[in-house]
Predict the structure of Large ribosomal subunit protein mL45.
Amino acid sequence: MMTPFKRLHLVRTLCRSSQIGESSSYLLGSCKSYSSALSNGSEGNFRSFYPHLLRGHDGIPFAGVKSLTLRSTMAAELSIFMNNKRMATTQVKAPPQARNVVTQMAMTSPGFIYEPYAPREKILFWKRWFTRSGWIRTKNDIILELKSAYAIAKLRKKGYSKKQFYNEAANMYKEINTLIANGDKKTLRKAVTEKMFSALKNEIRQRETAWRKVYWEMVEPVVKIRTLRARLIGVDRKDMDKTFIQLTLEILAKQKFEAYDSKGSVVAGDKSKEVLVRDIWVFEKSMFHPDAYWRLCGRISPEVFSH
């Protein structure tokens, strides 16, 4: 027989559970809308979920993603709890399918390049050190370099090796370009971020309307790889370790290219000749997910370097 105190505790528990059940349906709806917006990849949906960036400590921007992910995770577990009519004191774990969805959301890219790299205009020595505008420019240059140094320092704590990463980046560069040339969208999806995949898919579709087949080959090894910029993007204001890192690389490589029409005739390029190509690629990786791996999240046109 229950004591009055136990009855009161049970009533409070049931009341709280009913309130949780009402709010969980709304949260699950938000989660579904968020996932569909990412899969659609439309610019309108993207802007609706990223209307602005929230800046945090150390100049790290914050993407408004993690709070939604946490709420959606909680809603999924609470929904299972309510459907099975279990007591609030019972430990309930989401099924593998739900955990996979949560893991996928945690891996979701912020969807933008933070502070895209652009070369700084050269400034005369006397102007840099003997004018007010020169001092301001020098201060800004130092800040930019410190941001990169801070991001690399954080990455090193995760076991980052520049030599190892450059080898991986060169392999990814070759693999992604080959997949684009072959039009292998299924495999390409795993090597790039969600927004980048949408852009490449449209690029492949447009190319296939003009050329039936494309031959592409990279002459190994790459001529040069160097890091131009490193940036961190925070996804949780309360936990500075929950960040994404973006590394902007300049890749110089010799390539062979040839394009064919529907009859198999060469209409562009010449695969017997090597062409030196300069690309600026931005690679991204989650810093807080144990199974995270590098993906291509953007490309910067080398034309900006000629201006």
